[in-house]
Amino acid sequence: MDRLVADADPLPLRVFFIPFFATGHLIPLVDIARLFAARGVDSTILVTPRNAALIRVTVDAAAAGGLPLRTLIYPFPSAESGLPPGVENISDLPPEESYKIDLATPFTRPAHEQLLRLHRPDAVVSDVHFPWTALIARDLCVPRFLFTAVGLFPASVVASVRKHRPHAGVAGDDEPVLVPDLPHPVFLTRSELPDFLRRDVPLRRFRDEYVEAETASAGVIVNSFAEMEASYSEYYLRARGLRSWFVGPVSLATSNAGVRGGGDPAASANRSRCLSWLNAQAPRSVVYACFGSWSRFANEQLREMAQGLEASGRPFLWVVREEDGQEWMPQGFEQRVEGRGLVLPGWAPQVDVLSHEATGAFLTHCGWNSLLEGAAAGMPMVTWPLSTEQFINEKLVVAVLRVGARASERCRSTVDDEPHVVRAEELARAVGRIMDGGEEAEGIRRRARELGEKARQAVREGGSSDKGLRDLLVEIREGQGKKKDVAAAAVGSL
Length: 494
What we know:
This protein is of the alpha/beta class. It is about 45% helix and about 15% strand. The chain contains 20 helices and 15 strands.
């Protein structure tokens, strides 16, 4: 829970946070900055103009509540990167062009260096996409902490695959292979690996720089909780030499759900509409389907999804992109599901929906933020990964934690040019595996509830994530004290 009374300390800390240009990175790092501010840390978020607009309501609400949280705006390198003005977030581009944001990122180095050298904070918390911040922090004699926007489970799997390349010798893309040396047995096919691990991509040349910057970091701050990933904290320390601090799920720890939609009137209208609709549904009866702000489906897949949700026989709240229109909608679909199904174009208050008593299952793309929000709500999940590390996250949900079921048991791929259509009957069957009666469904739901309770305990005072944050602040304060001692000694020798 947020604390408006700062921990007593004669040396107030100043920490700068630098999020990447993606909403899935931006929101959790802002929430982490808010956690720091709630403990009296003077917290500043370095952000470009368009991304600042996405978090303005959150930051303003925190500041109005007395928290020392603010933004420091620097220009996005539009001219240097050749991107149009105002395109500053990967959600501004189609997935196949999102790499252009990554290619623009190195042009932000001069701005970061100027601001950090000018303001000289006591610590820097930087997204992995900005490896040069490790060198700048080292020159300033302050710690740089890494933020990756994913958990230690996927990070550990990626580290093992990079090191051992278990997929290199398999005959086909759909042949499962064991990822070596992990605390749990994890099997992946080559088609399920992130794009940057399985073939050359435009960003691959930056990966070595990212890895080198890790070694210069003081550790990694993780939006997760020990009860879910403790064994991977130990693995990551052995494999990467990095300490880690669990501080999440931040969706619970910050009590910040109410402002995540920003000040957009359409978002406010959607919040009212879907929560009113949920209030009229029976407890634990609704399937909530949402695939994040970046996922795109072909009309054929949207049509199959509609038919699958209809065939499941369950009430459903389905969030679709406004750009998708209605051409995909099966004939008579709206009439047949009227009162039982709500199709919501645009944005939904996901944390509020998942915590609503009417919601009984979460159909998700397994993005890390969505996974954590589902886990925090004690929600069983139907998993439908699409890209990046989402197929790895699915293994955590289905095989390790056993709190979900796959939307399709057939081979799928992280690569857009290898499409796989999940059929209506597959989706309806997967929903039934969670929502129907029987031993399997009861076990999934029970384990999900237990995981949710562990998540809530973690962020309470004295819980594992509360302790993780306190330990991290002690670490930074000790470093601050040593820095002041060195400076005093230098002055005394003059």
